[in-house]
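Record type: ASSEMBLY
Status: queued
Input:
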Amino acid sequence: MKKVLTFVTVLLFVFALAGCTSDDGVVTIGANIYTFNDNFMNGVVRPELESYAQELGVEIDIVDSEGSQATLNNQVDTFISKGVDVLVINLVDPAAAGTIIDKAKDADIPLILFNKEATVSGVMDTYDKVWYVGTDSAEAGIIQGEMMVADWQANADWDLNGDGKVQYVLLKGEPGHPDAEARTVEAVKAFTDAGIEVEELAIQPSTTWSTTEAGDTMAAWLTTAYADEIELVISNNDGMAFGAIQAMTNASYDIPIYGVDALEEALAKIGTGDLNGTVLNDGVNQARATLDLAVNAANGVDVLDGTDWVLDSETETKAVRVSYVAVTADNYEDFQ
Ligand code: BGC
Ligand code: CA
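Status: finished
Output:
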């Protein structure tokens, strides 16, 4: 009897560790990345989702939505028909959140949206089992802006034409993406808030966050009439900054440039002086928060149970926002 009891206790313990749902065994998670071509999502967030799932003893299936919301819609249908316990979704189109939320709601499966915040107002209130994990989009732009203003003020020679204004170009990233939109506004606003006039020479017309596309854009800018007028390159992520840096190297330009994300390669480029600064987008903690909430939701307990995460109290109550951190030549080694 004692042996049997011990065996049962051990089994219970194993199941508890594995994070079992109320109905059966191990928690299964249906997840996606909006495209495996994204430096940040594929290079930082995806590996952490995989290793942290292992650490938690849960099963995760991460599919590539290849930049197509239609593909993602089908992938979600498949996850639902397979009976996953929770959905962990990186929207392709942030305006399409309602479609995914409705699918989860109809199937009564909890849903964690991460990285791309829904842009349709009120949509998060249509389902009690949907939460968002990401950042405060504006914060990255504010931090990047402060960094650029401080450097501009410390380097009088950056004002190439001596008119007191910052002639800049901006690599925006995906239009309609809350991060791209908010960073664009805040980075520039930092200058005007500091009483420094700005002049936008050009803004990236493209539709992705890609290195190659940004490189082509920068190369084109460097061959236009205002090539010698560019005093600053503002890039809304590191991946695009890498392309721009390559284009500058090819054309023998060395213009101050700032990114966002703090990818490994960006830290190295700060070390060599190719990149002037970046902002840590803490993908590791975003991945961990995403899974913590997902596993709790799957187990039917409070999503914050046993975690240190807090729900955003300023905007709405269903988002966990991980903070950004300024990364410059002074502190980049701390992040390597
Ligand atoms: C990152 C970008 C990334 C995007 C994907 C942003 O938070 O800064 O690098 O491309 O998320 O949605
Ligand atoms: Ca100037």
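Annotation: The longest strand covers residues 28-33.
Annotation: The pocket of calcium ion (ligand 2) is lined by residues 159-161, 163, 165, 167, 231 (CB under 6 Å).
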